[in-house]
Design a protein that fits this description.
The protein is built from 13 helices and eleven strands. It is an alpha/beta fold and 329 residues long. The strands form two sheets. Strands 2-1-3-10-4-11 form a six-stranded mixed β-sheet, with helices on both faces. β1, α3 and β2 form a beta-alpha-beta unit. It starts with a helix and ends in a 5-residue tail after the last helix.
Length: 329
């Protein structure tokens, strides 16, 4: 109870709506799981979120003695797959592989979500977390963040930035960054992150913000310059790149992250068991390597710690949504 007192009101809702109700339930039988478990990924196959989910799902299935089947349910920025989990039975057989966009951005971005994200899910385990970086064209006469800001101030109206679309994490992170740097930029949305990066490489736009693992090949090829890490610390994936704070500005943390949540009300011992297995799996060298190849670090921690983290992220991204005025139906 002492831990709950330290939580904000939103985090208490996460815990009381998801974790607390299960304590009064009878212990789960020893037969769990007695059939395959479905892990819904609310995005299409092949992306970083899907790859991370599959890496964990395979090992989790082996540990639990039943297959953990990844089911891609893409659409509406991840809200379609998330809604399916929110409606699912609270029996531990349907889980959501959520992310920064689905669990932290969408509650503020979408005006009419078909579920209350603070009450619909029980956080189970955080899986991966990685930094986003700011890249600029190699042709731009700036070699670090300070020089980019000086360039922007000397050339008002000349800065545009690309993203994977209105309301995407890259869009919102870019606006947080511009707000911190005290400069302006015109948003140019593209259909994907790959196209947004290509726009910077060609000089069509002057910067974008994306995952360090996604931009690395362009940087190594000399097509773009990576000038800042939007995180509290440098990335092992690009250790030579300073953080925004190290560059002389107020810290901007816009990490991408992912983890497992369940429908609210899943028995506490099921949550505890899945959490323990995921934490163990993330310590395995081959899984840790897979995560780092995506530009992320394996996380772990307790379900309560994940709930606290989500609460902080919701607050941060709601501010970014307010700054941009972005909305989605």
């Amino acid at each position: 109870m002492k831990k709950l007192i330290k939580l904000s009101a939103h985090a208490v809702i996460w815990c009381l709506a998801g974790l607390a109700p299960v304590f009064a339930q009878a212990p789960v039988t020893e037969t769990y799981p007695s059939r395959p478990i479905r892990l819904i990924v609310p995005f299409g196959p092949g992306g970083p979120t899907d790859i991370a989910a599959r890496a964990v799902a395979q090992k989790l299935g082996e540990a639990l003695g039943q297959p953990v089947v990844v089911d891609n349910r893409a659409g509406a920025g991840g809200s379609i797959g998330s809604a399916e989990v929110a409606r699912a039975a609270a029996d531990g057989y349907t889980l959501l592989y959520g992310s920064s966009s689905t669990l932290a951005v969408n509650p503020s971005l979408y005006r009419r979500l078909p579920y209350d994200s603070a009450r619909a899910f029980t956080p189970v385990a955080m899986v991966a977390r990685g930094p986003q970086v700011m890249i600029i064209p190699a042709s731009l006469p700036a070699y670090n963040l300070k020089e980019f800001v000086d360039y922007a101030r000397k050339n008002p109206g000349a800065i545009s930035y690309s993203s994977a679309g209105i309301g995407s994490v890259g869009h919102l992170a870019s606006e947080l960054l511009l707000d911190t740097l005290g400069i302006k930029g015109v948003h140019v949305p593209y259909r994907s992150g790959a196209l947004a990066i290509a726009a910077v490489a060609s000089g069509e736009t002057q910067f974008t913000v994306d995952a360090v693992g996604t931009t690395a090949s362009f940087s190594k090829a000399g097509k773009v310059r990576t000038v800042a890490v939007l995180s509290d610390k440098r990335s092992a994936f690009a250790p030579e790149v300073p953080t925004v704070e190290e560059s002389g500005f107020k810290s901007v943390s816009a990490d991408f992250w992912s983890g497992i949540v369940s429908p609210a009300g899943v028995p506490a011992d099921i949550v505890k068991r899945i959490n323990a297995e995921v934490v163990r799996i993330l310590s395995l060298p081959d899984v840790a390597t897979q995560m780092r190849n995506l530009g992320a670090d394996p996380q772990g921690g307790s379900a309560l710690e994940f709930a606290r983290f989500i609460d902080d992220e919701v607050k941060k991204w709601s501010r970014a949504v307010r700054i941009t005025g972005a909305t989605a139906d």
